[in-house]
Recover the amino acids of this structure.
């Protein structure tokens, strides 16, 4: 029996912002899903959500949850991408004092967390300011 | 609809190291039964509101666990909806009576949180968020509300001190509540100088980690022998779900679920918002009280903080809010909070609130939130005091 590894799934889905497009009724969804809620279509196409995004709000976490203790302080933000799709993610490569609501950000591939030395390392997308 | 509240009972809120979850549930339940002048055997069902038991101790199946402790073999079930679990259990108990199935039910909200470290509790609480997006990226609840706070302050040109007024007011109320976790006052300066948790929220903008339980006896009818308690009824009850993830909301400076829940509850109660004399609202963070008050319709958007600074929401103001001390200072044992809010209203409507008694209180409102506003539960209570 063939099993997909977590890493392979991440490679396919986790390193882009993927939504779904219904070829039958043209409805779009984010995040990716299996079925169209409007017409019931089960064979949806991937929809890539494009960069850059706009910063809606942000905060600096000083008290981290378990698994992130070593990273604090770190910046998290609410970012609006194309089609008004919003996501929450970490923001890197910037002094939080210089961040401004409304600023343009672009996604960057980063290590998200490491549960322990034996565990699979979790990679994903964070954001950084658009280079000027 | 009128559901009678026959009895109320709660434990002290705080770090209660000598008591387990089931000890706390037992204490609140027995106090509520005694307050109602009833025996445990006269109950038809138990609804338990709890969020974290499985994550903290591994213990699930709380319905049977608590029924066993109370020596009862009646329908007993646990309701989970994050920090709204308590009010959800009340909502569900009301459904049980309204359906005709039960005459008298016991509601217990209970949470045991101080057995874990702060980092572990933070992680467990994130079970109430969108784990795939918010949890995996290292967000915390403080940071989700901080995102709302930052956007709100920017939108209305307000400062961190405007939020801090909520903490000062709720601590003042808690100083008048002997069951509160923090029964002492704090100054604006102390709030502003407290350590930052998630900018712009400081530790004194945040509700604490708390152990505690709160219980109610709900009934279809008033008892003929009720020990002379002033009757209090639930006349409105609504529950609304919004998106689990904050990012799926159009506007993070208001609570859509609260706006919808208050309309439904008012309609059910057949009253207008202006008739409400006092409110217990979900101040898990100072910003949450501000946004809740505006979404409930008590204040225009962008104005609740200034009204708080003017004393309008103090127990002697025009709209007393969180006379218990709120989640901020009475404490926030998450599953118990929604039930405790209703107990505070009952005390006020009966005229038993002691030093924090609101004058001429007839109608009270409780609003309990789950997650970042993903669930909103609103209850409206009416007392027959002060004719």
């Amino acid at each position: 029996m063939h099993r997909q590894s977590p890493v392979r799934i991440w490679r396919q889905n986790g390193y882009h912002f993927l939504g779904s497009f219904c070829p039958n009724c043209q409805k779009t969804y984010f995040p990716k899903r299996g079925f169209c809620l409007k017409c019931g279509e089960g064979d949806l196409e991937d929809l890539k959500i494009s960069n850059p995004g706009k910063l809606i709000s942000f905060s600096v976490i000083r008290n981290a949850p378990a698994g992130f203790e070593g990273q604090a302080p770190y910046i998290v933000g609410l970012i609006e991408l194309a089609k008004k799709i919003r996501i929450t993610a970490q923001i890197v490569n910037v002094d939080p004092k210089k961040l401004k609501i409304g600023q343009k950000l672009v996604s960057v591939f980063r290590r998200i967390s490491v549960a322990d030395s034996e565990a699979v390392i979790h990679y994903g997308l964070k954001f950084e300011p658009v280079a000027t | 609809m009128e559901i009678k509240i026959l009895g109320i009972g709660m434990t002290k809120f705080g770090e209660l190291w000598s008591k387990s979850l089931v000890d706390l549930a037992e204490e609140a339940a027995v106090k509520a039964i005694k307050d109602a002048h009833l025996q445990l055997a006269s109950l038809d069902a138990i609804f338990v509101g709890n969020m974290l038991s499985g994550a903290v101790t591994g213990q699930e199946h709380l319905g049977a666990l608590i029924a066993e402790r109370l020596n009862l073999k009646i329908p007993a079930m646990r309701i989970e909806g994050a920090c709204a679990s308590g009010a959800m259990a009340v909502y569900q108990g009301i459904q049980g009576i309204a359906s005709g199935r039960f005459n008298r039910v016991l509601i217990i909200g209970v949470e045991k949180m101080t057995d874990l470290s702060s980092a572990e509790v933070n992680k467990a609480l994130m079970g109430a968020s969108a784990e795939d997006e918010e949890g995996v990226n290292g967000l915390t609840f403080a940071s989700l509300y901080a995102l709302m706070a930052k956007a709100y302050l920017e939108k209305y040109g307000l400062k961190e001190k405007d939020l801090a007024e909520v903490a000062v007011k709720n601590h003042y109320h808690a100083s008048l509540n002997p069951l509160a976790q923090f029964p002492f006052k704090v100054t604006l300066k102390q709030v502003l100088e407290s350590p930052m948790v998630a900018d712009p929220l400081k530790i004194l903008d945040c509700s604490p980690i708390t152990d505690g339980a709160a219980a109610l006896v709900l009934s279809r009818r008033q008892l003929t022998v009720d020990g002379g308690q002033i009757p209090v009824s639930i006349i409105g009850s609504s529950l609304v779900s919004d998106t689990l993830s904050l990012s799926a909301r159009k506007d993070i400076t208001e609570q859509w679920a609260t706006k919808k829940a208050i309309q439904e509850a008012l309609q059910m109660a057949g009253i207008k918002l202006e008739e409400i004399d006092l409110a217990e609202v979900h101040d898990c963070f100072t910003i949450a009280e501000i946004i809740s008050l505006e979404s409930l319709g008590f204040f225009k958007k962008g104005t609740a903080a200034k009204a708080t600074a003017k004393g309008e929401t103090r127990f002697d103001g025009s709209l007393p809010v969180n006379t218990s001390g709120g989640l901020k200072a009475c404490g926030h044992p998450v599953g118990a909070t929604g039930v405790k809010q209703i107990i505070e209203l009952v005390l006020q409507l009966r005229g038993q609130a002691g030093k924090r008694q609101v004058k001429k209180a007839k109608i009270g409102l409780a609003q309990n939130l789950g997650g970042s506003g993903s669930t909103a539960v609103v209850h409206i209570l009416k007392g027959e005091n002060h004719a």
Q: What stands out?
A: The two ends of chain B are 21 Å apart (CA to CA). Residues 193 and 202 of chain B are 8 Å apart (CA to CA). Residues 3-116+209-219 of chain B form a domain with the Peroxisomal Thiolase; Chain A, domain 1 fold (CATH 3.40.47.10). Chain B is about 35% helix and 20% strand.
